Amino acid sequence: MPFRLRVDGLGASRGEDPIFRAICLVLDAGGALLVTGRNGTGKSTFLRTLAGLHPADSGTILLEGIADPTAPVRESLHYLGHRNAMKRDLTVAENLVFWARFSGRPGETDPTVPPDAALATVGLGGLGHLPFGYLSAGQQRRAALARLLVAHRPVWLMDEPTAALDTASERMVEALIAGHRAAGGIVIAATHQALDVPGAQTLTMSGFAVPA
Ligand SMILES: Nc1ncnc2c1ncn2[C@@H]1O[C@H](COP(=O)(O)OP(=O)(O)OP(=O)(O)O)[C@@H](O)[C@H]1O
């Protein structure tokens, strides 16, 4: 069976308030989805629900064509949230080694891409020895992006991946996304920026209008 992400009838709420309902989508290997919409319309909630970090009210999220179909979907994805999920007091390289072990397949001890190489890819070559907290906001975001490279996971969920990044780094993010898709991965990115992601599907969140 080919690799495919299938979302059917997904809905979620925040407290008593419905945020979205009945979202259906299918993304094949190499596919991408850009999620857009005004502030507060539910982009982050949607990504967090896909990541298993926020409970769904309804619907299913299935990955087809993976080695172990009984494995939770969350084990096949990387979630890059608003926060970078790195320890400020550890060095950048130590953070990446942690993530490689945490996100790698069971029994897999070596990073998919060595931290130094991942850092070079995001333009932070030679900075692995610095405490994460020493980096600028944009450098911290780039280091968080390197996290996606050190352990291969086929689905990337990216919430505002270009937050704090300069224009050149936005092109770097586009290249990372293109590389992941070319390797058969799937990318879902929520963004306010006009990212160049060729052939991407789009989902515009509009918020949930309660009938009068
Ligand atoms: N932790 C929370 N507790 C309660 N309500 C929340 C929480 N986080 C978000 N919300 C509400 O859920 C709705 C959707 O928020 P969400 O963060 O998903 O939107 P968004 O489209 O990602 O916004 P932005 O573009 O500002 O990042 C908003 O009305 C927000 O107030």
Automatic annotation (TrEMBL):
Gene3D superfamilies: P-loop containing nucleotide triphosphate hydrolases (3.40.50.300). It comes from the Bacteria. Residues 5-207 form the ABC transporter domain. Signal peptide: none annotated. Coiled coil: none annotated. The keyword Translocase applies. PROSITE patterns: ABC_TRANSPORTER_1, ABC_TRANSPORTER_2. GO terms for molecular function: ATP binding; ATP hydrolysis activity; transmembrane transporter activity. The keyword Nucleotide-binding applies. Keywords: ATP-binding, Cytochrome c-type biogenesis, Membrane, Nucleotide-binding, Translocase, Transport. One of its GO terms (biological process) is cytochrome complex assembly. PANTHER family: ABC TRANSPORTER I FAMILY MEMBER 1. Belongs to the ABC transporter superfamily. This is Heme ABC exporter ATP-binding protein CcmA. The gene is ccmA.
